[in-house]
Design a protein that fits this description.
Layout (H helix, E strand, L loop, with lengths): L6 H8 L2 E2 L9 E3 L9 E4 L11 H6 L4 E4 L12 E3 L3 H15 L3 E6 L4 H12 L5 E3 L9 H7 L7 E5 L8 H8 L3 E4 L13 H8 L11 E5 L5 H10 L3 E6 L6 E9 L2 E8 L2 E7 L4 H16 L4 H7 L11 E6 L8 E7 L5 H13 L14 E6 L8 H7 L11 E5 L3 H7 L5 E5 L2 H5 L2 H4 L5 E5 L6 H9 L3 E4 L3 H5 L2
Parallel strand pairs: 2-3, 3-4, 4-5, 6-8, 6-9, 7-8, 9-10, 10-11, 11-12, 16-20, 17-18, 17-20, 18-19
Antiparallel strand pairs: 1-5, 12-13, 13-14, 15-16, 15-21
Helix pairs in contact: 1-3, 3-5, 4-9, 7-8, 12-13
């Protein structure tokens, strides 16, 4: 494995000193002893738990050294520790050094909805143009962004950095670490409302993605949203080249149509003066809109948009964000199958509506289960961090026009009770005060031929329902439209 950090580089980046010389250079950076690999630097961050409590376990598991602010009890005198005043400050120093030594380009993405999807799409399409680095998960906060940068190999051609926020003042410092060549705002919506007075405040915070933009860099902005002028004004203020995307008006990257056909989305776009036709190997108009932001970013990075668009046909939604599974019931699937759409990682009113449209386009199968007609079934858990609008936002989902195509809506959580009460009697399924209780009911609530979508905020444990459905039978990716036609 190639060297990620030479020891003298680490000392210079962190301002620390080694209590004992490690036996080797650093080949990786980790904050989790469960995934330590030989040669890693273990970073003893203080978050939910104090990482100093796990230094011994990390070294035992093969870490080459540990980044600490003090020597934990019980360690051998020759334990290889890089001692600093503050671990997070030292990690940030590593992030700055990693960005400075990198000769490639950086794209940074934020947004109320879609930032992880855009990150993953960009990761996928940029691989044909060079070596790509991006966070494996949604490491987008005050320690996740520095950690992603600290893990970036010096030979990286393109880095894709996701930047999130929960409160005002969080995005600008992270953007300055990333120093993006391209900064993307996917959209602005009523998410994390509890920390802001209104959506305009959210827009002003999202606009700070351009705070660290390199001179002459590109801002990729959603032209469709009402708060576009706020984003545009901030981007102009830093001298950014502004490239717009959307489906209304005259954005530079204009999505003209997006037709969901089973497990795919067929798209027509106008880019500058030319037509562009492409396909996504995942369903959803919201994904097509994300793709326009991706293609705009590809152009901002100086790469071929047409080649990137072709490559989108191979991109598949990740677990928790629209991944599709076929669950075969009974021995060798003799009792039929269920189509499961896993969108359980996050939720807000905007993404809920997009998810309903995805389920509406899925095709159940009739005549293969206990219930003669295959059904479209929703399992929903609470949307979190909506502040004063939380109950209204949940109840309002009942009036979403796409729900007319959904057969049953089962829900869990104290906030989802508002939706349960507002649902028409014919579509109202079961409601429980927690996801674990609803998860125990999935076997009784589903049947062969059903198409089912699970969605909710991560903190409301929607993933438990996904896991319960997968355990109903043999589970495998629904990799093609043919897989779904046989459900």
């Amino acid at each position: 494995m190639s060297v990620l950090w030479h020891l003298d580089e680490l000392i210079a980046a962190t301002g620390g000193r080694f209590s004992a010389q490690p036996s080797r250079d650093i080949t990786g950076v980790s904050i989790d002893t469960r995934s330590i690999e030989k040669g890693d630097l273990f970073v003893a961050l203080k978050d939910v738990r104090d990482g100093h409590d796990f230094v011994a376990a990390a070294l035992e598991a093969g870490a080459a050294a540990a980044l600490v602010s003090h020597r934990p009890d019980g360690l051998a005198k020759d334990a290889p520790l890089l001692v600093v005043d503050d671990v997070l400050d030292a990690l940030e120093g590593m992030a700055r050094a990693a960005r400075a030594r990198m000769a490639g380009q950086v794209a940074a993405v934020t947004g109320s909805v879609g930032k992880t999807g855009v990150k993953e799409m960009l990761r996928h399409v940029l691989h044909q143009f060079g070596r790509v680095h991006a966070a494996e998960r949604s490491f987008n906060n005050h320690w996740g962004v520095p950690l992603t940068l600290a893990r970036m190999p010096r030979e990286t051609d393109f880095a894709v950095i996701e930047i999130g926020m929960n409160a005002p003042g969080e995005i600008a410092p992270l953007s300055r670490f990333a120093q993006p060549d391209v900064a993307i705002v996917t959209t602005v919506a009523a998410v994390h409302v509890a920390a802001f007075e209104d959506v305009s405040g959210i827009a002003r915070e999202k606009a700070e993605i351009v705070a660290g933009l390199v001179p002459g860099g590109t801002a990729v902005l959603n032209r469709d949203i009402e708060t576009f002028p706020i984003l545009q004004r901030r981007a102009k203020g830093v001298g950014a080249k502004i490239v717009t995307f959307g489906s209304a008006g005259r954005p530079v990257f204009h999505l003209e149509s997006a037709q969901i056909k089973g497990a795919t989305t067929v798209c027509t776009a106008q880019v500058h003066d030319r037509k562009l036709f492409f396909k996504l190997a995942a369903p959803g108009r919201h994904l097509a809109e994300n793709a326009m932001a991706v293609l705009a970013a590809v152009e901002g990075l100086g790469q071929d948009v047409a080649h990137a668009a072709l490559d989108l046909a191979q991109w598949e939604a990740p677990d928790g964000r629209g991944a599709r599974w076929r669950v075969d019931l009974g021995e060798a699937g003799m009792d039929g199958a269920i189509l499961l759409i896993d969108d359980a990682y996050n939720a807000n009113p905007t993404s809920m509506g997009a998810a309903f449209e995805v389920l509406a386009a899925a095709q159940p199968r009739d005549g293969i289960g206990r219930v003669a007609r295959g059904r479209r079934v929703l399992f929903l858990t609470d949307m979190l961090e909506l502040g004063d609008i939380e109950l209204t936002a949940h109840a309002d989902l009942a009036s979403h026009p796409t729900l007319s195509t959904i057969d049953r809506v089962h829900s869990a959580g104290p906030l989802m009770e508002a939706l349960h009460t507002a649902m028409p009697q014919g579509k109202r399924g079961e409601w429980y005060d927690s996801a674990p209780k609803l998860a125990k009911r999935v076997a009784a609530l589903l049947d062969a031929g059903d198409a089912v979508l699970v969605k909710g905020s991560k903190g409301s444990q929607a993933a438990l329902i996904v896991d319960a459905i997968k355990k109903l039978g043999h589970c495998a990716p629904a990799a093609s439209l043919e897989d779904e036609d046989e459900v």
